[in-house]
Amino acid sequence: CLGVDRVSIDPDESAGELEARLAERGGKLVLSVIEALAAGTAQPVKQGRTQASKAPRLEKEHGIIDWSRPARAIKNQVRALDPWPRAYTSWQRPSEPGGSSPRESLRLIVHRAQVADAAADPTAAPGEIIEAGPRLVIATGAGALEITALQPAGKRVMAANEFLRGYPLAAGQRL
Q1: Judging by beta carbons within 10 Å of its beta carbon (0-12, 13-18, 19+), is residue 11 exposed, middle or buried?
Q2: How far is CA 80 from the centre of its chain?
Q3: Contact 70, 88 (CB under 8 A)
Q4: For residue range 63-78, what is the model confidence (pLDDT) as tens digits?
Q5: Could you tell me if 160 and 136 are in contact, meaning their C-beta atoms sit under 8 angstroms apart?
Q6: Which secondary-structure segment (H or E) carries 132?
Q7: Of 105, 112, 77, 103, residue with least CA distance to 90
Q8: Please, are residues 91 and 105 in contact by the beta-carbon 8 Å criterion?
Q9: Residue whose C-alpha is closest to residue 114's, from 61, 156, 171, 76
Q10: DSSP bridge pairs for 108
Q11: pLDDT tens-digit map of 38-58
């Protein structure tokens, strides 16, 4: 290894935001290494095997949200899978008034989420909607997650409160 640059990761930074920041810093590091090589001052540093790790190839299935996981883990999944493959869940829409069968489920891509500041209802099952207006708060395996930005299938990204004005989610329903 001929160059090292350590960076901290903001707890709300997405993978896409981090990638853009690292690309800029990496370009500057490459230039400094080239200058050191040209000047004959480059000093190779051996990387220990314990510091190296391989990441698995991301698949679309990695985006499925498992609501039984802790709220912080789901928040980190949302951050890690931005910009691809994106974290997502499904909402089984209730049947139309007078209808007998449930409507088709709606895929919801979660763009931004945060651990909810209030404790989750201990009686709520993972994936159960705790609050649906003005915030969208979902029970998880440990704590609650507030979805702040999401995208219904085939639509644009929107703030959760905007989404709730057009889609009748209610406390007690499940994702």
Answers
A1: exposed
A2: 5
A3: no
A4: 999 999 999 999 999 9
A5: yes
A6: strand 129-132
A7: 105
A8: yes
A9: 76
A10: 89, 152
A11: 999 999 988 888 877 888 899
Alpha carbon distances (Å) from 87 to 63, 79, 126: 4, 9, 16
Closest CA to 58 of 91, 20, 4, 16: 16
Give dist(CA 94, CA 97) in Å, integer. Answer: 9
The pairs formed by 92-99 with CB atoms below 8 angstroms and a separation of 24 or more are 92/173, 92/174, 94/168, 94/173
How far CA 68 is from CA of 22, 53, 118, 143, 173, in Å, comes to: 33, 27, 18, 10, 15
Rounded to whole angstroms, how far apart are CA atoms 148 and 158?
Answer: 9
The pairing of beta strand 106-115 with beta strand 129-132: unpaired
Please confirm whether the linkage preceding 126 is cis (ω < 30° from 0). Answer: no
Give the burial class of 10: count Cβ atoms within 10 A of its Cβ; 0-12 exposed, 13-18 middle, 19 or more buried. Answer: exposed
What would the pLDDT profile of 143-159 be if each residue is shown by its tens digit? 999 999 999 999 999 99
**Ranges of H-type helices in the chain:** 15-39, 71-80, 160-166
Burial of 111 (0-12, 13-18, 19+ CB in 10 A): buried
Using CA atoms, how far apart are residues 105 and 76, in angstroms rounded to an integer?
Answer: 25
